[in-house]
Amino acid sequence: MGFDLHVSKRLGDAEIALRLEAGDGxxxxxxxxxxxxxxxxxxxxxxxxxxxxxxxxxxxELFGDGIDVPPERRRAGYVFQEARLFPHxxxxxNLRYGAGRNAAIEEVAQLLxxxxxxxxxxxxxxxxxxxxxxxxRALLSDPAFLLLDEPTASLDRGRAxxxxxxxxxxRDRLRLPILMVTHxxxxxxxxxxxxxxxxxxxx
Amino acid sequence: xxxxxxEEWEIVALSLRVGVVATLAALPVAFAIAWLLARGRFxxxxxxxxxxxxxxxxxxxxxxWFLLVAFAPGGPFGFLSNGVLFRWTGAAIAAGIxxxxxxxxxxxxxxxxxxxxxxxxxxxxxxGPWRVFWTITLPLSLPGLLAGTVLGxxxxxxEFGATITFVSNVPGQTQTLPLAIYAALQxxxxxxxxxxxxxxxxxxxxxxxxxxxxxxRRMRAAMVHGV
Lengths: 203, 227
Prior knowledge:
The complex is a heterodimer of chains A (about 200) and B (about 230). Chain A is built from six helices and eleven strands. Chain A is an alpha/beta fold and about 200 residues long. A six-stranded antiparallel beta sheet of chain A has the order 6-5-4-1-2-11, covered by helices on one side. Chain A has a five-stranded parallel beta sheet with strand order 7-8-9-3-10, with helices on both faces. Chain B has a domain at about 15-170: MetI-like (MetI-like fold). In chain B, about 80% of the residues lie in helices and about 0% in strands. The mean pLDDT of chain B is about 90.
């Protein structure tokens, strides 16, 4: 069981409305910028409250019917569009922030090729490095599902392919439901198990 | 300048004690108010804001007189009058009240400068509101917190009008550096003493400012380059 969303939210002049039922695997949310894709991810993560509707992931009710699980208990592995690394913590401490005592930091660092960056400050990382650290940090927080917002947007081709491979690996080996936002149709077709288009609805 | 007399040492020690106690006592209050103003959304916020900043613009003698009325026997805090009136604790209260607006302003700016998206990221990583506060918000607002503290301390050392109105000019109790300078200037032969005390207060203030600047630099360096 993957994502079961039925949400609407008014933000300024725009009305975001989405109905989505997707099975396991990787669901791509596809649409032009301004359609509210990131807002949908924020709602699933608990950072933005829908006006109406329900949010269920993996059969667990996160929002709706009087339920509103706070973000820290939703177990969302959210990789934001900007890396959002904590600037006052080194890479290792960033990775450990949401991790349990026995988290496999070494293993994840290997998977994402960031083992050599552990002692660095976020400021000194390139865009691709920061993005991979952000993915690692989300993976290590023992997530029940992943939210990826344009995970390859700021990367060059080579790095983008590496990140795509890592995402496929996560999808197929860790079997985590993934909700991913992209505006790149080719990438959407390469990675998606389910593809959902979102249109801007203005009133 | 020759060595300090015992009397002058006493004045310096008293000034530092009043300044440190006033600043440390005002700090948590200033932080709470700054947090409320930076993050809170409630009706009457603008009024709270105005009241907090009031000591900055009202004549200090008025603030001192209000304090006197409040702490005098029969006033709302009259039960404290024995421990406060004509005592160094009263001087610390006056200094703290006068320093509060400056501290609130500096701390508020630093809280507002914290990137709230980082707090959101921390929440999704499993951190509840308190952990987010201690591990993200507080460390990131530390430079402003430090600046506010030093500013408040410097303001406390220079406090004059509210103090002399509230707790008078009692040597050994409420006679901090500025009040001692004022007392010296009242005497026909006091110029030399006033000069020495003035030089002293400049030295103390300068030391505080330099120390804070060094500390702030080291902290910025640690955050930016990682030492």
